[in-house]
């Protein structure tokens, strides 16, 4: 088809989707099954990009690419959305909505610095854009820049005192400051403006969880899930609440629902795996941790968790492989080094175990357990003088942390070694 036919066909497909100019964060969901119309739009997109060099001077092209990027953002395909936003802004850098949606995309993939850059570009064009200020504040909070975030939230509220998303931001700000009771006040204020404002309901439920107000949290989150049953944050928080209530089966049902919707979130898979582990369903726990690894192969905690559960399945070799990978991803992780040292210890590979406990102590010198096992390895290697000195230091550390039992054990070992010298 010619240029005009192609652009008109894409426009028509995009009109069918009827997406707003600014994507609402809580509307973003991964797509499990692609419709025929969506596949057809994908084919038209390929044709557009193949002929882009020839037609990019057409004034309709930047807006069409922006709308395509919005589709990917709405489907939680953040990387693809960012590529297209970069492309369209290269053709027309005055598109405020594209800058904002690209900033939101970066927020969703936990890249706050890049989000700040995008939102700054939006505000450079539209200085009174309150939504850009709120998103900017969200990015700043992720970086721990709470004062800067609060300034932007106050600016937004000064311009529009009834903006629910800005009031939500103030609730998130006070929660980040460690003032959950104040956060509740702001979140209730947002809900007084719009009782069905989904993100405020979800945040309020999460804050109630922090405050131990479980019944209030369940009530608020049930309302959120009635509005949108597929909100994974609300489902995950409901799971967290039932964990606190020691109702693990109910917690598991919420996590199961959450991962069925957001199947590429390693944190959700880890929560599911932890429940299986607590229920002693170790193979199911391992399966969940493996799904977390599949979702993000560089997610260190997933490798650690699966290594730990492999030990419970008496598969030390596989456990060692998982911890080797975790340590390759994060060489300074004392927890991984310690766990691998325990495996080497169980395999009677004492020299390698000692090296791991030494590495763990080097990065976490305040943890006496690293010295405890270091001393054990030194004894097993018949390096008794070094072992005695290590037991002495370990005892002092246990005294400092108030672990009387471990301190007493160290004292017994010190006396025994003193008699053999």
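^ structure tokens above, recovered residues below v
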């Amino acid at each position: 088809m010619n240029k005009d036919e192609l652009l008109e066909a894409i426009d028509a497909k995009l009109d069918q989707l009827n997406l707003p100019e600014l994507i609402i964060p809580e509307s973003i969901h991964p797509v499990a099954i692609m419709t025929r119309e969506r596949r057809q739009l994908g084919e038209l997109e390929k044709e557009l990009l193949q002929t882009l060099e020839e037609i990019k001077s057409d004034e309709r092209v930047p807006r069409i690419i922006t709308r395509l990027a919005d589709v990917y953002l709405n489907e939680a395909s953040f990387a693809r959305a960012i590529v297209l936003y970069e492309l369209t802004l290269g053709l027309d850098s005055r598109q405020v909505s594209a800058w904002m949606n690209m900033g939101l995309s970066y927020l969703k993939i936990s890249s706050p610095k890049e989000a700040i850059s995008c939102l700054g570009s939006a505000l450079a064009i539209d200085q009174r854009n309150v939504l850009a200020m709120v998103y900017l504040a969200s990015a700043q909070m992720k970086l721990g820049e709470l004062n800067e975030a609060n300034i932007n939230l106050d600016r937004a509220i000064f311009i529009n005192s009834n903006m629910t998303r800005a009031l939500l931001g103030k609730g998130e700000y006070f929660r980040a400051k460690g003032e959950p009771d104040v956060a509740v006040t702001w979140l209730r204020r947002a809900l007084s403006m719009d009782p069905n404002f989904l993100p405020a309901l979800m945040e309020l439920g999460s804050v109630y969880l922090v405050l131990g107000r479980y019944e209030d949290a369940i009530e608020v989150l049930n309302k959120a899930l009635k509005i949108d049953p597929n909100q994974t944050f609300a489902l995950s928080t409901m799971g967290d609440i039932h964990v606190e209530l020691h109702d693990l089966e109910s917690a598991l049902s919420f996590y199961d629902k959450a991962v069925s919707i957001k199947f590429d979130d390693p944190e959700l898979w880890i929560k599911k795996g932890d429940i299986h582990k607590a229920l002693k369903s170790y193979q199911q726990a391992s399966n969940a941790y493996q799904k977390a690894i599949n979702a993000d192969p560089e997610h260190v905690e997933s490798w650690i968790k699966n290594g730990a559960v492999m030990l419970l399945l008496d598969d030390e070799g596989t456990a060692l492989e998982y911890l080797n990978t975790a340590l390759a991803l994060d060489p300074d992780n004392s927890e991984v080094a310690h766990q691998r040292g325990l495996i080497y210890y169980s395999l009677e590979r004492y020299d390698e175990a000692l090296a791991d406990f030494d590495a763990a102590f080097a990065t976490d010198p305040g943890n006496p357990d690293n010295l405890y096992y270091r001393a054990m390895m030194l004894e097993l290697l018949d390096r008794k003088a070094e072992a005695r000195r290590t037991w002495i230091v370990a005892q002092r550390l246990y005294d400092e942390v108030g672990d009387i039992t471990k301190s007493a054990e160290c004292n017994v070992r010190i006396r025994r070694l003193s008699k053999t010298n």
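The first helix runs from residue 3 to 17.
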